[in-house]
Amino acid sequence: MQDETKVILLVEDNPDDEALTLRAFAKNNISNSIVVVRDGAEALDWLFRRGQHANRGKLDPQIVLLDLKLPKVDGLEVLRQMRDDPRTRLMPVVILTSSKEESDLLRGYELRANSYIRKPVDFARFVEAVREIGMYWLVLNEPPPVLPPQR
Prior knowledge:
5 strands, Rossmann fold, 38% helix, 151 residues, 5 helices
């Protein structure tokens, strides 16, 4: 499953979870470009092309895989800012977290997350979850149209 135009943005601060996620993508032959950012501030800079990411390429992610417990800016605040901006308002966001807090689940959906997945502890279950994420969001789902910039 390769499509160079379908970039995945992985927002994950835990190196073990990052490695696990990348390994699960590889195991499922999902070879899309994966951009990894390790805190909420960097995620916002990458999404909004500012700071060190001001000159990044034109491609926006097909999907954002967003952890909640992040340094600098937490995942729920990243999601809130994404939903408040017309450039990212419709961008698919899957919260991929180990948080078991019901308040995180509720707030994620209040902020219009497209999906909320708790990271399975078992690697085989995690590989299957990543396969299903890839199949649905990168192959089956029709993304929203790209809207012209508003003035």
